[in-house]
Amino acid sequence: MIGKNILTLRKIWGLTQEELAEQVGVSRQAVAKWENGESVPDLASSCALAELFRVSLDDLVRFDDQDTGLMIPPRGKHFFGSLTVGPEGQLYLPEKARTLFGIHTGDQLLLLGDEGRGLALLHQRDLIRFAEAAGIFPPDDQS
User: Fold this and answer.
1) Can you give the residue range of the structural domain that contains 51?
2) What does each C-alpha distance from 7 to 2, 57, 107 come to in angstroms?
3) Sign of the Cα pseudo-torsion (8, 12, 16, 18, in order)
4) Model confidence over 38-61: pLDDT tens digits?
5) Which one of 22, 43, 68 terminates a domain?
6) Which positions ≥6 away from 50 have C-beta within 8 Å?
7) pTM of the full predicted structure?
8) What is the C-alpha to C-alpha distance for residues 22 and 31, in angstroms, rounded to an integer?
9) What is the separation, in whole angstroms, between the first and last Cα of the chain?
10) Residues forming a β-bridge with 91
11) Total count of domains within the chain
12) Among the four residues 29, 42, 48, 121, which has the most C-beta atoms within 10 Å?
């Protein structure tokens, strides 16, 4: 999987094998072997690749576009795949999204919309934290 991801990211970034090799500090042959699955980069090279391509090391190593049909997301961004809308408009959030963002049964989420940019979900606690930080809501007295 890592070889395919290196090849995909190299092409997205418009780099030749030679250019990538130079930036990571390896030979062009090493890059070619990674991309065709003959070998895998060592940890230092993997970290350099993840940094260069601005993706997480985990996604560089494990990302499988079969899951989502999308490319590797930038570091800190996530593609969770498609959601199913139930007969009454229910959305079923993938477990990975619920776990990452601490969403549990009964939590209150805000659905925001912009006709030009789309929909966004925001956990109610995050809106409250934002409002407190902006001075809109004073934080609860904790004394």
Assistant:
1) 2-68
2) 9, 15, 41
3) negative
4) 999 999 999 999 999 999 899 899
5) 68
6) 56, 57, 59, 60, 75
7) 0.58
8) 10
9) 53
10) 85
11) 2
12) 48
